[in-house]
Predict the structure.
Amino acid sequence: MRSAEEDPSYDSDFMDTVNKSMSVAILASLFHRDLVDQMVQDATDTLVGLGMHEKNIKVVRVPGSLELPIAAKWLARSKDYHGIIALGVVIRGETPHFDYVCQGTAQGLVDVSLETSIPVMFGVLTTDTLEQALARIKGPVEHKGADVARGVVHMLNLAALYGR
């Protein structure tokens, strides 16, 4: 077991080093498409900026966030992708539908990752308002598409380092 001093995953550059042969699937919900499209663009730009070949990035559209887990499972089982980014936006409405979609999506994506050992990054925004979603997509709170792209690279590097 490596100590914190010996473990390269403690180095901030670790998450910014991409193996050019790696491939990533970006799953994108069609619901709130304009918001999700911005996250897709940011994730793609970040992956390419970190050195991933654009031909190794595949965008796959699904109807809504609740469909992300099954599509992630299909992609993971295909063995064509080293990592998966799941992107969606769920904005609270006046019914409990929000809670069911958020819980099912989150648990489903976790299950896929654990079952297949393929890193699945959770890039599904769950907000109360459109303004909160925009702040998490375009700043100042965060840039979710770019954040999950860096996260998947970090996880791919961990997988390469520790085996899977």
User: Anything to note?
Assistant: The chain is about 45% helix and 20% strand. The helical segments are 33-49, 68-78, 97-116, 130-138, 144-162. Residues 33-162 form a domain with the Rossmann fold fold (CATH 3.40.50.960).
